[in-house]
Amino acid sequence: MQAIDWVILGVGVINASPISMGLLTNRGPPDWHPAVKFTPCIPDACSQAAKYCEERGVDISRLALHFSLELPDCATCLVSARLSGQENYFDPSQAHTLMIRASFTSEYLSTQWGL
Known about the structure:
The chain is 36% helix and 3% strand. It is mainly alpha-helical. The protein has one domain. The longest helix is centred in the middle third of the chain and has 15 residues, at 41-55. It is globular, with a radius of gyration of 14 Å.
C-alpha cells in the first residue's frame, strides 16, 4: 500500500526514519543496516549522493529531513538526533538543497528490503 491508500482508510502514516537509519548521512549507515546486507547498491548510491551534496555545500541529512517533512500524506515524522545541538538542524532558508534531490532519488524511492 502507498501512503495515500492509508489516508483513504483513515490511518495516519508515520515516517520513522527521515535519514533512513543513517543511509542519508555523511558517515553512512551502521553495519547492521538491512541495506548493507541485502542491497549494497543502496548504501553505495547514498554515499555518492552524500559526496555530491558535500561538494555543493549541502548536508545530505538536511536534504533528507526536508524531503521527509514535505511528504503530503504522512501524519508525522519522527526525528532523532545523534548529537546534542542537532535539534535545530533543518534550516528552510537553505533552499538550494532541494535542487539536488532529483539527481539521486527517483531510482530508489520504491525500494524495500523484504524483511
